[in-house]
Amino acid sequence: MKILFSFISFCSFFIYAKIIPSDYIISLNDNNFDEALENYKNIFIEFYVTYCDYCLSFYNNFEEASKLFENENITFVKVNLEENLNLIKRYNIDYYPYYLLIKKNENFKRIYKRSYTKNEFELFVKKHLYNSVYHLSSFEIFEKYNSNNIPSIIYFLNSKAKNENFQIYNNYSLSEDKYNFFSILKSKENLNNFNITNKNISNELILIKKNFDNFNDEIIINTSLTYDYLFNLIRTYAIPNIIKFDDESRKLIFVEKKPGLILFRDPGNFKIKDKPEEILQKICKEIKPYLQCIISGLMNQDEPKLIEFLGINYSDFPIFFILDTRKNFSFYKFEINDNFNYFSLKNFIDKWYKNLLKENIKSEKIDKFISKDYPIIKLVGNNFEKEIKFNKHENEDFVVLFYKNSCVKCQSFYSVYEKIAFKYYFKVNKHIKFFKIDIELNDLPNDYYIEKVPFVYFYKANDLNYIKLDYNDVLYEKDLDEFILKYSSFNLKEVTQSEINCINNEEHLDEKNKKEEDL
User: Under CATH, which number does the domain 131-237 receive?
Assistant: First the structure.
């Protein structure tokens, strides 16, 4: 019992609510629930708790809706969760109030997740009891059911006869509860009432009306519809033009592969005349068919992961990124400067759309404070190809360690790698260099596939190809040493720590003397 009431709920006030019995609503419990399923063909249930103030206020709307179906083939039901724990487990109820529509013998169950108004309850029941598309006889009836929170999809028909395109529309509406689906005859009067700009009576159209955006979307139908096409169409236009980075937008980009234009910004720190949000508002409708506008709010725990994935520094804010998950998570950066305006951002988007932009590479900044005496050179995404992939290195062998800083095995192996790098110290062995690159923070060329880390590649002099060090679960110093000696193009000399100290001390002394001479 205590576990249930710790779950996320709509009830934020601990006021005991009394659900009063009604002539239109019956009360069920664990003992008589199955009997009711047998006796009633369709039931619509409100699961509630007595101390939830919202349960009481929503119940009043639930009761008003039930009166509309007094003589219909559906029964409205209430269940007190505090007294019926078996039903909690049976339907995996983890919040309240919880609304569930069940059709005969539980062959059809649909969870209600909409606004808790009388009209929304009514539309939901009519959709699953009768027709999934509500046919409007007038604009006035639409105004009654139009919701501020749920997009309305309206199909304008040329005639009362339902064609194949409308059947596709009807089938889609059966599987989608996020929107309200309507149909209406395409007359001049209806076009004017809905403020349709395209007055062509010959073509059918779909209007997506969103009260949370300042404008609606008109889609002309001049071809045969398919279910997938309609799904993508409505999915694209029915969501807000600008959304936050959350579970919904993450699913849209990473699962459904919709490219996104993401604005990363600090809401209280703008150094430019035109705020990026204002520019985004102007441009988002134009790019909606192929780019979803997203604003990062830095309030979600997953946003820092995205920022790390893209290799962004917080000091770079505000900044735009196009993230294209259709192309192996490629991304393109647009840095905002004093000349930023609508046209500069639009030009950037147009170039991306025409495949004229070069993909950004995730790359750390090169650390300028690493001692020049240290034997391992740090590589980053921006210099990997120049330093390694396309470097002919005619008189040098290269050894590269690929690792992840978060990898425990990598951390233990790095000390081994460091020992070998000092053992064949570059100031004595002029023909070998040791490198490292963190593949979490830096992108590699597309033809590099690192299956596991840590991993070592050996590049022989005058050869752009590499040799992989194979190992099982553990990398030992002996294995790495033998691997390097086996493939080295040159004779390597072992160097002791005292020799290294002596060499570096002499160099530092020479540098000091030279500075004094210059002075």
Answer: 3.40.30.10
